[in-house]
Amino acid sequence: MAGRRRRPLAALRMLLTAPVRTLGQAPMIRRVSYYLRRAGGGLDPHFFRALGLAVLGFVAIAAFGVTVLEPEKRSLAGLGGSLYWAVTTVIGSGDSSYVTSPGGFVLGWVLAFFGVAIVAALTAATVGLVIDFLLKEGQGMNAAGYRDHVVVCGWNTTSRELVSELTSDEFHVKVVLIHEAEHNPAGDGVYFVRGDCTSADDLARAGIAEAAAAIVCPSAATNEADMRSILTVLAIESIAPQVRTVAEVNNPAHVEHFRRAGVDEVLVTPRLASRLLARSALYPGLTGLVADIVSGGDGSELYAVLLPDDYAGLGVDECSARLRAEHHATLLSVTRGTTAHTNPPADLRLEAGDTLVVVAEELGDLVPAESAAPVVALTSATA
């Protein structure tokens, strides 16, 4: 019976504390908490302890003085009342008629002046903290406080385009940029963290441990930039190995090094651009088609989605037909484990947990495959 009684109490406790936990996870609350922890770490506790003791001592001395100077207050009860009067006078709500002697008036004035000074000091300290917080926000010196966001490490022309794509996508992804600059180059809508992409502290301020993905972009089209990107991947993998990492690579010869660092996906920009240009020269219109399906906005786009539960066991042709009829989507690829079957063969039977790559105008009822396994091998229908 005791166990049964505890269960409703535990459920009620969880119900009552859920709003508090939810509020505590709000990005702004987490940013302020990080700032206060960092600001508090630089304060001298001995100074504040001495200041607090001085205030308490001054109030106690004033209360004792009033008790001595006021004849009708000369008792233990009077000392308690004087102490209460001294405290309320300091905070600005004391009773001025409590004292009647000249000495009592003087102590009351001193306490009131002392209270005004304390309020002014606290107000100045509070305003200073708020201004310092806002300044550090603008300079990228605070923490993002997001969860399930995308961290962009580095800034270049690719970063500018991908940030525009992420912030305009229908999923409304929160984006955090880490870059060594005085001001946010990404503009509004992107939280800026000024720092080094290879620094564990700066990655922590960007919330890398609770991010959904990290995109690493080289700062320049050089081999040295690739080496720094590899260090960034290593830093991310050491802090948050569960975070999906995608890296832009300048030199195709460095892809193997990125793989050894633990990156999930790589994009060799020169190789992709050259091959797309070659295909477009042979088959006109391909450039516009690819640009349309990989960009947001109007028209069809690429989506990676989880296989619907009732599609398990279907063949590729039947799955394609149902996707067209029920979701207005065209099947391009099936990913199983770490292998992607592009233009999958007709005899491939779909299994629960497969990821589908489709072209559709919108996601609709399909569930996005946000945590798909990294693809390390590609096959086609002719493989």
Salient structural properties:
Alpha-Beta Plaits, 383 residues, alpha/beta, 6-stranded parallel sheet, 15% strand, Helix Hairpins, 5-stranded mixed sheet, 11 strands, 3 domains, elongated, Rossmann fold, 50% helix
Describe the structure.
The protein is an alpha/beta fold and 383 residues long. The chain folds into 3 domains: 98 residues, Helix Hairpins; 123 residues, Rossmann fold (3-Layer(aba) Sandwich); 81 residues, Regulator of K+ conductance, C-terminal domain (Alpha-Beta Plaits, 2-Layer Sandwich), CATH 3.30.70. Helix content is 50%, strand content 15%. It has 12 helices and 11 strands. The strands form 2 sheets. A 6-stranded parallel sheet has the order 3-2-1-4-5-6, with helices on both faces. The chain has a 5-stranded mixed sheet with strand order 7-10-8-9-11, covered by helices on one side. The radius of gyration is 32 Å and the shape is elongated. The N terminus and C terminus are likely disordered.
